[in-house]
C-alpha cells in the first residue's frame, strides 16, 4: 500500500482520538464537580431546578427545593454546583455588592443634567469646555449631509435638463407627421 492511501485513515483516527480525549476530560471535570458537593451548597439540576444539597450519598443526592420539599436525584442529574453568591442572586434575588467602591449611578436623570455656575454666571460645564481642546471625533455626518445636498442638486439639474430637452423638441399635433 501507498503512504498516500493511508494518510486519510491516519487523519481520521487522530481526529477521533482528539474528540474522545476532550469528551473524557469534560466528563472527568463534571464528576469532580459532583464529588465536591457538600450539604448546604446550591445546585442546578440538568432540568433547570435550583435547590440546596441536604445529603450526598454514593450515587444519589437529596435536595431541599423549598420548605418541606425534599427530592432525591441521581448525582448525574446535577448540572452545576453554584457559588453562594450566584445561588442567592438567582434563587433569592439577593445581589452581592461586588463593586462597593464604584461610583453610584443615580436613578433619575435630573441629577445628571444639573449644571453648576461659575462666579461670573456662566455654567461650569461651558467654562470647562472653553479651557479644553475639542477632542470630539467627526463621524462623517457633516460630509454625509453635504453629499446628500449635492445629490439633491444633481437630481434637480437632471430634471431641469430633461425639461429643457422636452421644450426644445417640436411639438407634434394630431394632423402633422414627420414622414415624407
Brief characterization of the structure:
This protein is α+β, with helices and mostly antiparallel strands. The mean pLDDT is 76.
Task: Characterize the structure shown.
The chain has helices at residues 3-35, 84-92, 110-113, 124-131, 141-168; strands at 42-45, 50-56, 60-66, 69-74, 78-82. The protein has 180 residues and is α+β, with helices and mostly antiparallel strands. The chain has a five-stranded antiparallel sheet. A hairpin with a 4-residue loop joins strand 1 (42-45) and strand 2. It has five helices and five strands, in the order H-E-E-E-E-E-H-H-H-H. 46% of the residues lie in helices and 16% in strands.
- Helix fraction bin: 40-55%
Structural class comes to alpha+beta
Q: State the end-to-end distance.
A: 88 Å
In percent terms, what proportion of residues is strand?
Answer: 15-25%
Bulk shape: elongated
List the topology elements:
Layout: H1 3-35, E1 42-45, E2 50-56, E3 60-66, E4 69-74, E5 78-82, H2 84-92, H3 110-113, H4 124-131, H5 141-168
Antiparallel strand pairs: 1-2, 1-5, 2-3, 3-4
Question: Notable features of this structure?
Answer:
alpha+beta, 5 strands, elongated
Amino acid at each position: 500500500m501507498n503512504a498516500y492511501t493511508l494518510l486519510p485513515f491516519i487523519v481520521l483516527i487522530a481526529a477521533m482520538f482528539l474528540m474522545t480525549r476532550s469528551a473524557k476530560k469534560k466528563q472527568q471535570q463534571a464528576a469532580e464537580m459532583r464529588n465536591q458537593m457538600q450539604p448546604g451548597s446550591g445546585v442546578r439540576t440538568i432540568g433547570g431546578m435550583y435547590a440546596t444539597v441536604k445529603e450526598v450519598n454514593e450515587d444519589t443526592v437529596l435536595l431541599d427545593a423549598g420548605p418541606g420539599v425534599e427530592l432525591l436525584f441521581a448525582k448525574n442529574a446535577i448540572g452545576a454546583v453554584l457559588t453562594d453568591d450566584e445561588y442567592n442572586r438567582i434563587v433569592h434575588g439577593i445581589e452581592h455588592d461586588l463593586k462597593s467602591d464604584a461610583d453610584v449611578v443615580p436613578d433619575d436623570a435630573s441629577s445628571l443634567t444639573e449644571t453648576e455656575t461659575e462666579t461670573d454666571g456662566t455654567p461650569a460645564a461651558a467654562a470647562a469646555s472653553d479651557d479644553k481642546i475639542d477632542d470630539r471625533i467627526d463621524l462623517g455626518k457633516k460630509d454625509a449631509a453635504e453629499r446628500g445636498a449635492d445629490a439633491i442638486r444633481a437630481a434637480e439639474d437632471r430634471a431641469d435638463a430633461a425639461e429643457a430637452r422636452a421644450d426644445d423638441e417640436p411639438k407634434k399635433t394630431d394632423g402633422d407627421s414627420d414622414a415624407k
